[in-house]
Design brief:
The chain is globular. The protein has an eight-stranded mixed β-sheet, with helices on both faces. By secondary structure, the protein is of the alpha/beta class. 40% of the residues lie in helices and 23% in strands. It has 13 helices and 16 strands. Strand 3, helix 7 and strand 4 form a beta-alpha-beta unit. Helix 2 packs antiparallel against helix 3, helix 2 packs antiparallel against helix 5 and helix 3 runs parallel beside helix 6. The chain has two domains: 224 residues, Acetylglutamate kinase-like (Carbamate kinase); 117 residues, VC0802-like (2-Layer Sandwich). The structure holds aspartic acid and magnesium ion. The site of aspartic acid (ASP) has 12 residues, from loops. The site of aspartic acid has 12 residues, from loops.
Length: 421
């Protein structure tokens, strides 16, 4: 059995959905679990709906949601003939679920409402695609993944209940394979034991694919993207970025850690743990080889460049000239955990520490105010963090031309440099 994951860009139009169908047809006869994201930028649009709702602008929220509804109904109309009515009825159920909520007044935390509304994107896209595949004689079973993936109630970053999820996913797959070869379900979403919807973090569909692969012992996972495969740098910023045809799990974990937007960072562990290879392939040209990520060692990797924008350097200094020993460091790490801040780089000195992190306004303020109970705090904003794995000195020199370097950290494998924009 194989797991496929199709991201938002691969289903953002009627043509793209037909293209997906073409790809699935090439695998006819094989057992497939197909995980699909929301269409195009639907998740962003749904975020706007929740923001309006939470700001008390009910009419605006409903209007914004109306646009999303119409987009999906239009797509369904273009694609479906025989299966249109059944699909529209199912879409309407999802619309109603959201609209009911939008008619209420917000009384709980924002993140709760976020998940109840934003989860609709994946439900709508999979509903249309499942009906279309059935119409095109690719019999498949649709499932609401909220009946399978059980999570805690950490809304917007929910943690998986592996025990329950394993049981449900196994049961679901057994019942699917009794009559079909293909299961179609949603990425990114799950549900608590109280049937509240949850989400797994933006771009979380990759992670869902890895969960299913792990639980069902898939032979492989394929992530279908609009790029050739994994590149050694972001092609939008570096036009001569090159394809990396083979990577091992460790390298990808490192890349994700340093901020490369290859795949969702949580995706690798479930695959690595069971030695399940992941393919990153281009849905625009499935004949291209793409990238394989597996457990084999890979030698001679090119330099891998990751740029993180909008960075903040926090300078913390001890107030009384005491050393940055174990005690203050321990307190600092508790603050990271409590404020849910993930440092991108830490440089420790005798009486001070410098921490580079993403500059997210609310988080930054929260962190700075918590840290200020223990240290002198200074913030340096508008920075970039450049990470190069497998670097060489000439490349580093070229990349730094004309830049004002604030801090550099080097190991044998990796160099990280913070500079002013
Ligand atoms: N639709 C969600 C997002 O845009 C999840 C995903 O695409 O993986 O973040
Ligand atoms: Mg996506």
């Amino acid at each position: 059995m194989k797991v496929f994951k199709f991201g938002g860009a691969s289903v953002n139009s009627v043509e793209r959905i037909k293209n997906l169908t073409g790809i699935v047809k090439q695998y006819q006869g094989e057992q497939l679990v197909i995980i699909i994201s929301a269409m195009g930028k639907t998740t962003n649009a749904l975020e706007k709906v929740v923001e309006a709702f939470y700001a008390g602008k009910k009419e605006e929220a409903l209007q914004l949601f109306e646009i999303i509804k119409n987009q999906h109904l239009t797509t369904a109309k273009y694609l479906l003939v025989t299966h249109y009515n059944a699909c529209a009825a199912q879409l309407n159920d999802f619309f109603t679920e959201v609209e009911w909520l939008l008619h209420d007044k917000p009384v709980r935390e924002f993140d709760y409402y976020y998940d109840q509304v934003v989860c609709a994107g994946e439900l709508l896209s999979t509903c249309i695609i499942s009906h279309y595949l059935n119409q095109e004689k690719i019999p498949n079973q649709w499932a609401d993944v909220r009946d399978i993936i059980r999570t805690d109630d950490h809304f917007r970053d929910a943690g998986i209940d592996w025990h329950y999820t394993t049981e449900k996913a196994t049961q679901c797959w057994a019942s699917v394979t009794a009559s079909h070869n293909i299961l179609i379900t949603q990425g990114f979403i799950g549900s608590t034991d109280e049937n509240e919807s949850t989400t797994l973090g933006r771009e979380g569909s990759d992670y869902t694919a890895a969960l299913f692969a792990n639980i069902l012992n898939a032979e492989s996972v394929t992530i279908w993207k609009d790029v050739e495969g994994v590149m050694n740098a972001d092609p939008k910023k570096f036009p001569d970025a090159q394809l990396i045809s083979e990577l091992n799990f460790n390298e990808v974990i490192e890349m994700a850690f340093y901020g490369a937007q290859v795949i969702h960072p949580k995706t690798i562990k479930p695959l690595q743990n069971k030695g399940i290879p992941m393919y990153v392939k281009c849905f625009l040209d499935p004949s291209l080889p793409g990238t394989v990520i597996h457990k084999k060692n890979v030698k001679n990797l090119p330099p891998i460049i990751v740029v993180k924008e909008n960075q903040l350097l926090v300078h913390l200094n001890s107030r009384d000239f005491s050393f940055m020993g174990e005690a203050p460091m321990q307190q600092l790490y508790s603050i990271f955990a409590e404020a849910r801040v993930r440092p991108n780089l830490i440089q420790t000195g005798a009486i001070g520490v410098q921490i580079c992190m993403d500059d997210k306004q609310d988080k930054t303020e929260q962190f700075a105010s918590m840290a200020s109970t223990l240290f002198d705090v200074q913030l340096e904003k508008n920075l970039q963090l450049l990470t190069i794995r497998h670097y060489n000195e000439p490349l580093v020199a070229t990349m730094l031309e004309g830049k004002e370097v604030i801090l550099t950290q080097k190991t044998k494998e990796t160099v990280q440099i913070i500079f002013k924009i």
